[in-house]
Design goal:
The complex is a heterodimer of chains A (239) and B (283). Chain A is an all-alpha fold. Chain A has a domain of 157 residues: MetI-like fold, CATH 1.10.3720.10. Chain A is built from ten helices and no strands. Chain B is α/β, with parallel strands linked by helices. Chain B has two domains: 153 residues, Periplasmic binding protein-like II (D-Maltodextrin-Binding Protein, domain 2, 3-Layer(aba) Sandwich); 95 residues, D-Maltodextrin-Binding Protein, domain 2, CATH 3.40.190. In chain B, strands 8, 9, 10, 11, 12 and 13 form a six-stranded mixed beta sheet that branches. Chain B has a three-stranded parallel beta sheet with strand order 5-1-6. Classes of the chains: A mainly alpha (239), B alpha/beta (283).
């Protein structure tokens, strides 16, 4: 092989600092987008199951529209397509205050909101209809039934696929580099173009993403066990 | 246990034996019959997709007219040229991973890059400038503090601005079309790239008169074709092709085709650049 390894490029010079800055941006981007995605996901997922047709259609429209277009296209849409529609003053202010970060957050959040809503909808669908009927019989409105009875159980049911979608969101945050957001993957490429050591730089990025995702998965598993309702889902002893 | 040991020993032998199987570039071209080049798709007039949807350009022509015959003589048979897209962040990895054999686009020859790749003779000479909207207050590299400057990630321009002018707010995009779009729409106040490429973009912009290329060269950018490091035989062939073109005049014909008065982008060659190019081959 003509390639000489030089792992010191990862901590000499500015590489370490860049990796940390990239990590910080990735975490901020993912956290904000995750909150947006979960909120949109719960609203859209629940609305797809209510008896009221216009709300169902609205939610279905949102889901099908946003999840069937690649995320990369959405990144360009929110960064290049939306700002020109705003008044010039708003545009200038936005460009000076991290337009690319917010475009990336919204693109990521709305896209994953659509995907999250399907996960939540399946959780709601797994709850017997009798629960809903019993809530109504007790005098709760539809909204109260969802808020107090259906959603608490549904959210517990969907922790595994929900975790999977959340990890997807974290990994998809790297697509934001196409609109110049300086997140982790951008910084690994930066290291690679400055030092020409592609394998070392990409290994660093890989290990950091791996560590992040494994930690999040572990935390979610703990949360699942902590909030599980005894007897609700059959679990094997090995858990 | 024994099987595990045998497997690991086999793997160890296979991995250490690998270097002995590595071919040099000319052998690879001879066996596959293809010279794969990494080139740009959005950098007129060096390498771009034109209105007729053809992938053409000055750098591509240099390869097809000057380098290809030389390679064919060296391997003793006809070869095909295959083009793959390469951008500043991807070009060196594409070369090291053997996905392409030659980078023929807009790559600046720098001492730092020479640590990772070999460069051919310089085939073009330009410098870094800025493209701004007409009437912009930015007139040179000294005016960029606090301004949003679009760059291509991985380019020499980005590196220089980042190191020497940290007060400028850089927005690094993966490739030229996205960076130019940011300038067009106002996400960036200026776009920095090599002067000749800025002129190329300006000519192809929807309203060319809205844009100005400003500033003295804040860096010198000699373009070379990049090859894998240490491949002396291939470098000799590529350099021979360029040398023959410069000596015989074919290079200047191709230059005229793209940069002459009737070319895609009229950009007369200054006497200094002409002397520099000829001095490389000892004239």
């Amino acid at each position: 092989m003509n390639y000489t390894f030089d792992w010191s490029v990862l901590w000499t010079g500015q590489s370490g600092q860049w990796l940390l800055q990239g990590l910080a941006v990735t975490l901020q981007l993912s956290a904000l987008a995750w909150v947006l995605a979960v909120v949109l996901g719960i609203v859209a997922g629940a609305l797809r199951t209510v008896p009221f047709r216009p709300l169902r259609w609205g939610a279905t429209g949102y889901v099908e529209f946003f999840r069937n277009v690649p995320l990369l296209v959405w990144m360009f849409f929110w960064y290049f397509g939306v700002p020109p529609l705003l008044p010039r003053v708003a545009q200038d202010w936005l460009y000076d205050h991290g337009a690319e970060f917010w475009a990336g957050t919204i693109a990521l959040g709305v896209y994953h909101g659509a995907r999250m809503s399907e996960v939540i909808r399946s959780g709601i669908g797994a709850i017997p209809r009798t629960q809903f009927e019993a809530s109504l019989a007790m005098g709760l409105t539809t909204f109260q039934a969802y808020r107090l009875v259906i959603l608490p159980v549904a959210l517990r049911l969907i922790v595994p696929p929900g975790t999977s979608e959340s990890l997807n969101l974290l990994k998809n945050s790297s697509v934001a580099l196409t609109i110049s957001v300086a997140e982790l993957t951008f910084q690994t490429r930066q290291i690679e173009t400055y030092t020409a050591k592609a394998i070392e730089a990409l290994t660093a990025g890989t290990l950091i993403y791996l560590a992040l995702c494994l930690s999040i998965a572990t935390i979610m598993a703990r949360l699942e066990r902590h909030y599980a309702i005894p007897g609700l889902i059959s679990r094997t002893k090995a858990g | 246990m024994k099987r595990m040991l045998a497997l690991m020993l086999t793997l160890a032998v296979a991995l250490t034996a690998a270097p002995a199987l590595a071919q040099d570039t000319l052998d690879k071209i001879k066996s596959t019959g293809v010279l794969t080049i990494g080139t740009r798709t959005g950098s007129p007039p060096f390498a771009y997709v034109n209105k007729a949807n053809q992938w053409v350009g000055f750098s591509i022509d240099l390869v097809e007219t000057l380098i290809k015959p030389e390679v064919e003589t060296a391997v003793g048979k006809a070869i095909k040229i295959e083009k793959k897209e390469s951008t500043p962040p991807t070009r060196i990895p594409l070369l090291s991973s053997n996905a392409v054999d030659l980078i023929a686009g807009t790559m600046t020859d720098t001492p730092q890059r020479r640590e990772s790749v070999d460069f051919s003779l310089t085939f073009f000479y330009t410098g870094a400038q800025f493209m701004v909207k007409k009437g912009s207050p930015i007139k040179s590299v000294n005016d960029i503090a606090g301004k949003r400057i679009a760059t291509q990630q991985g380019s020499t321009n980005e590196k220089i601005l980042r190191e020497k002018y940290p007060q400028a707010q850089l927005r690094a995009f993966p490739d030229q079309p996205a960076a130019f779009q940011a300038l067009l729409q106002g996400q960036a106040d200026a776009y920095t790239n090599d002067g000749i490429q800025l002129y190329g973009l300006k000519a192809k912009a929807p309203k060319p008169d809205d844009w100005d290329v400003v500033g003295d060269f804040y860096s010198e950018e000699p373009y070379g074709m990049a090859m894998r490091k240490g491949d002396a035989k291939f470098k000799t062939v590529v350099d021979a092709g360029l040398r023959k073109g410069l000596e015989g005049g074919k290079y200047f014909e191709i230059y005229d085709k793209w940069f002459g008065p009737k070319g895609e982008l009229p950009y007369p060659m200054t006497p200094q650049v002409r002397a520099y190019l000829l001095k490389q081959i000892g004239k």
